[in-house]
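Methods — Computational structure assignment.
A single polypeptide chain was analysed. Its primary sequence is given first, followed by the predicted tertiary structure written as structure tokens.
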Amino acid sequence: MTRPQANSPAPATSAPHSPSRSAQTVTRTNRWTATAERPKRVSVTVYAPDPVLHVGIVHQLRQRPEIELVDEGSAHSAQVSLVTVDTVDDETSALLNRLRHEPATRTGLVVGTFESGDALQRAIDSGVAAVLRRAEADQDRLLGLVLAIANGEGVLPGDLLAKLLSHVGSLQRSALDPRAASLSTLTPREAEMLRLVAEGLDTAEIARKTAYSERTVKNVLHEVITRLQLRNRAHAVGYALRNGLI
């Protein structure tokens, strides 16, 4: 007689697969890494009195994923204020001074030309952190300028740096020599008349050349000599030549 066989155990049912703790950690780490590697955009407001300049700069920056353009209505929150002008005039200086008091922003200047070292000095004194010439303002240089400003860096072309240092040196010499300070305020008419004296012209000839009266010529030259504490016209011409004014 055959014994009944015992029921064989039912096959084990595998539990639903769940990722291991290490796999979960790797997943989270990868997610965090991807987030960390995503570049943070720099917010920029563009200022330009000329609408054509404004459109040109905005068009170049808008194409870069690193840049977030902010209109002037929300400019107080922009990390970078980018001012684009032909030259630094009184209106530009007023704008730069206003931006200097915005705590959240640093200012960059894209400029056609600086007419003098004094204009460059005024821009720096007004809080400009970086300068780029308009002729060199292609998309890559604009981006480099903006990123440098956002990183707290300063940018100044080499020749403009040389001009700034020369101007600062001139101001230091003026502080040491009161007459040099007076020279720095020589008017165009005074400089022109001193040049004519240097060329050997007398009072009557200078009057004809400049269309002023002889009395005016004498008064102008006397004012220069007195203000600079010099002895005579020859002394004034020599002093002006040594200081590079004529």
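Note: The chain is about 50% helix and 10% strand.
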